[in-house]
Structures are given as C-alpha cells and as structure tokens.
Amino acid sequence: MLVSGKEILLHADQNKYAVGAFNINNMEIIQAIVGAADELRSPVILQASQGAIKYAGIEYITALGKLVADKYDIPVALHLDHGTDFEEIMKCIRYGFSSVMIDASKYPLEENIERTKEIVKIAHSVGVSVEAELGKIGGTEDQIVVSEAEATFTDPKEAKIFVEETGIDSLAIAVGTAHGVYKGEPKLDFDRIEEINKIIDIPLVLHGSSGVPNDSLRKAVERGICKINIDTDIRATFATAVGDFIRANPEEIDPRKILTPARDAMKEIVKKKIEVFGSVNQAWK
Ligand code: 13P
User: Fold this and answer.
1) Which residues contact 119 (CB under 8 A, 6 or more apart)?
2) How far is the CA of 139 from the centre of ligand 1 (A)?
3) In angstroms, what CA-CA distances link 29 with 67, 71, 237, 279?
4) pLDDT per residue over 226-270, tens digit each?
C-alpha cells in the first residue's frame, strides 16, 4: 500500500519506533528491502536520490516503487532523498512519489526557509509530504559532499523557527552522524536529539546511519528519531556479496546467479536494521 511519508512517520512517532528509509538503485535492492519489510510486517520507506533516479530512470524507479507498494500488504512510502533541484523535485511529485526531501541546508537559514517553503506549498497541495534539513550533515551522499569542517549540528532554537515557518512534515537533523563510511566510531549527541524533540512536534530524521552501532541507533529512537536512513550498509553488502561470488565462481556469467546471493544478503541486513529500529509487526495495513 503506497502511503505518504507523513502517515508513515506519524505512526512511528505515536508508537515510539523508527521506520527504515533504505536507498534504492535497482530492482534487486528494492526486492531485498520490501521482502525484508514484508517478512517482518514492518512499514518501510524506499528512497531514491537524484543520482539513483539519473542511473535507473524515473520511470523505472516509480514503476518499481508503485508495483511493490501495490503487491505487498504493508505501508510503503516512495521518497526522494536529498532533493536539491527544484525541477527534479517537481518531476518526482509528478511521477507519483509520496514524499520528497528538499535539501537546502547549504544555504543560510532564511534562504533554506524560503526554498523549503516553496516546495511545501506545491507538495502539500497534491498530498505529498516534505522532509527538510537544518544543520549540515557531514560526509558524501551521491552528489552532496560536506567536509568535516563544514558540518554543523542543528541548533534547537533555529529548528523551532524553521519548522514553524516552513510547515514541513519531518526534519533531518545533524547530531553527529555522517553519510558514507566512518573512520572512527560516530558519537551522537543524544541530548540534542531529545532537546529538539521536546520543542518541535514533527518526526525527526537521522541521516548517515550506516555504521552507527545498534545501541546508539536504539538510543536515538528512544530520544525521538522516527526515520533512519541507510544506504552505505546496503551498498557494502551488495559489493561484498558480488565480489565473493565472482571470486568463487570466475566462470559464471549469468547475472541472475551473480546477483542472487547479493539480493539475499541485502535482505538479511535490512531485516537486522528493521529489528533494531523497533518496527517489526508495526504494519497497520
Ligand atoms: P548512509 O549512506 O551513511 O547510510 O546514509 C544514508 C542517508 O542518510 C541517505 O540520506
């Protein structure tokens, strides 16, 4: 069942768990994610970055996303991850995404507010939910690169102003995570999550969650995180499984045989994440 990002995250907020938002690039990744969510009866968010849309084509991404949302009896949202381009965001809305992220976090507060407001007005008029970002999450996610020096934590007072002025449905906060592979163990500012959660009443989103220890993820959910983004862990699982298979079977040329272990391994990692996020048996459809 295709649902809006808002519906899926409000359920998570009310029931004190987080929904996994897993990045999709191709059919096997989508099958792995939805297969895992279905087996565990968990709501799930399939999210495509602008880079994923460029790679696969928006027709393929939306057709596959809507197909699995119809096929499985669990709530599924189709979400644009880190939309930085107005036309690209409009295209996703037009093709049937149920949720979009506008990432104008690189701009000063006022400009971030203006750019975000513009998207909210259009998206809400057709029932599409909007996530936005305040503060700067470090690391590399597709075309977005934020160095350690540029990364800044979300200011709770600014977050309140930002949410009130823009009317967004969920807020991505910078609290110590970073996109991509971590060099050391990430240290999350749990007090900041709690403080922001106390003063704003929309669901909070944690980006850069691959490589974050399970205990930290659980603690982040306890403090108010409702959406947890995972990309790198799936990519790494895919690459390792394909590499292992090809090394063990150098003569094999059948893509189905090469990709089956990767799809199985990605499904397992997604199941583990869903268990940590506390969304098992939370599917209400
Ligand atoms: P990771 O690649 O670190 O899991 O981050 C994913 C993400 O936050 C997508 O927006």
Assistant:
1) 83, 86, 89, 100, 102, 130, 132
2) 9
3) 14, 16, 11, 20
4) 999 999 999 999 999 999 999 999 999 999 999 999 999 999 999
Identify the active-site residue in 13, 81, 169, 231.
Answer: 81
Kindly state if the Cβ of 263 falls inside 6 Å of ligand 1: no
User: Could you count the other beta carbons within 10 Å of the beta carbon of residue 134?
Assistant: 27
Q: Which of 23, 170, 212 to mutate to test the pocket of ligand 1 (most atoms within 8 A of CB)?
A: 23
The residue whose C-alpha atom lies closest to atom 9 belonging to ligand 1 is 229
Query: Nearest 5°: CA angle at 284, between 230 and 27?
Result: 40
The whole-angstrom distance between residue 247's C-alpha and the CA centroid of its chain comes to: 32
**Is 103 a known active-site residue?**
no
CB 30 within 8 A of CB 64: yes
Greater confidence, 119 or 139?
Answer: 119
| pLDDT tens sequence across 97-122 | 999 999 999 999 999 999 999 999 99
Q: In what order do the strands lie in the sheet with 178-179?
A: 144-146, 138-141, 178-179
- Residues of the chain by 3-state class (helix, strand, coil), percent to 5: 50, 20, 30
Rounded to 10 deg, the angle between the 255-277 and 232-248 helix axes is: 150
pTM, two decimals, is 0.96
Could you tell me if the CB of 50 is within 6 A of ligand 1? no
